[in-house]
Design goal:
CATH topology of the largest domain: D-Maltodextrin-Binding Protein, domain 2
Distance between the termini: 15 Å
Organism: Couchioplanes caeruleus
Pfam families: SBP_bac_6 (PF13343)
GO molecular function: metal ion binding
GO cellular component, one term: outer membrane-bounded periplasmic space
InterPro entries: Ferric-bd (IPR026045)
Number of strands: 11
Number of domains: 2
Structural class: alpha/beta
């Protein structure tokens, strides 16, 4: 799955490995305004979003020249390339990646009429990025191994001895890393380190990714796991069924708990492309009812624009009792990765 590997020393190699197409890494712009092409750095998986890009191209005639990697990799690459980047837009898996790029001064303001479509909680305070979809942290559980009434109200309860060896996590996954950042932001560095160190000491079960966690919970190999809500939908789709037919169920933590955080996938526009009509068309499309419905029905994420139906197997987004965490404060990803390592959750 996705791991943090875009250290400066590896950036040149990353350019060679991750970038395909006509543009050189950090070279001259590969696209000009109005040329019916958008160079997009995508922190979202190719298999996931390419079908949507193809729908966009069919509708508008505008080609998406996408370069894929993890959100952390793409953010690091943009920071390294700076104003010389061929990228025109950055599609991120989480708010932290967008915040990190915005902090470098690389993003332009998204038109106000577009950001106004998305609740203020899910867009940048300065208007320089906007959420496209929302994803909630949850505890996936197998009712035959962990009864609903016994599930913890707080994610911090998972360090209790009763959960020793029973909790699966995916520390190298971007969603877990964003969750670590949220804990750091909400509770401070000391408590965050204490919690994740205790989670390790409680024999947390390390898995490669969230899909593996849901599949093991479904199979009764591990009682519970920390994931994002939509992975239950993905596993159900892989098995040709619906989430309600699976053994695994979702548990939402109590109001205000860090374990109940809601993050976004989102998009920002590089400054040199602020007035490019092709980029504007892409933003219009991602926030259209058609694309928002596609996300809800295909990737099981929450749409952020009114008019698109939410996934059927989760509570409405407005009913989730999220913690008091400003998504604009999730930009310190590298510190979270360092904490994960210091807690012993990765080799």
């Amino acid at each position: 799955m996705r791991t943090w590997s875009a250290r400066p020393a590896l950036l040149t190699a990353l350019c060679a490995v991750l970038l395909t197409g006509t543009a050189a890494c950090g070279g001259e712009p590969a696209s000009e305004p109005g040329d019916k092409t958008v160079v997009l750095y995508s922190g979202r998986n190719e298999a996931l979003v390419k079908p949507l890009f193809e729908m966009f191209t069919k509708k508008t005639g505008i080609k998406i020249e996408a370069r894929y990697g993890s959100t952390a990799q793409m953010a690091a690459q943009l920071a390294e390339e700076g104003e010389k980047s061929p990228a025109e837009a950055f599609l991120s898996q989480d708010a932290g990646g967008l915040g990190a790029v915005n902090k470098k001064g690389l993003l332009a303001a998204v038109p106000a009429e577009l950001t106004a479509k998305v609740p203020a909680t899910y867009r940048a305070k300065d208007g320089n990025w906007v959420g496209v979809t929302a994803r909630s942290r949850v505890l996936v559980y197998n009712p035959t191994m962990a009864e609903k009434e016994e599930l913890p109200p707080s994610v911090f309860d998972l360090t209790d001895p009763k959960w020793k060896g029973k909790v699966a996590i995916a520390p190298t996954n971007g969603s877990f890393q964003a969750f670590v950042t949220a804990v750091r932001v909400q509770h401070g560095e000391d408590k965050a380190k204490e919690f994740f160190t205790a989670l390790k000491a409680n024999d947390a079960q390390i898995r490669e990714n969230n899909i593996a966690i849901v599949e093991e919970v479904e199979a009764g190999k591990v009682p519970v796991g920390l994931v994002n809500h939509y992975y239950l939908g993905e596993v159900a789709k892989e098995r040709g069924t619906t989430p309600d037919k699976l053994n695994a169920k979702l548990h939402f933590f109590a109001a205000g708990d860090s374990g109940a955080m809601v993050n976004v996938s989102g998009i920002g526009v590089l400054r040199r492309s602020a007035t490019d009509p092709d980029v504007r068309a892409l933003l219009d499309y991602l926030l259209s009812t058609e694309a928002q419905t596609w996300f809800a029905q295909t990737t099981y994420e929450y749409p952020l624009v009114s008019g698109a139906p939410a996934p059927a197997y989760v509570p409405p987004l407005a009913e989730l009792k999220v913690p008091d965490i400003d998504l604009n404060d999730l930009e310190t990803l590298e510190a979270s990765i360092a904490l994960i390592k210091s807690a012993g959750l990765t080799p």
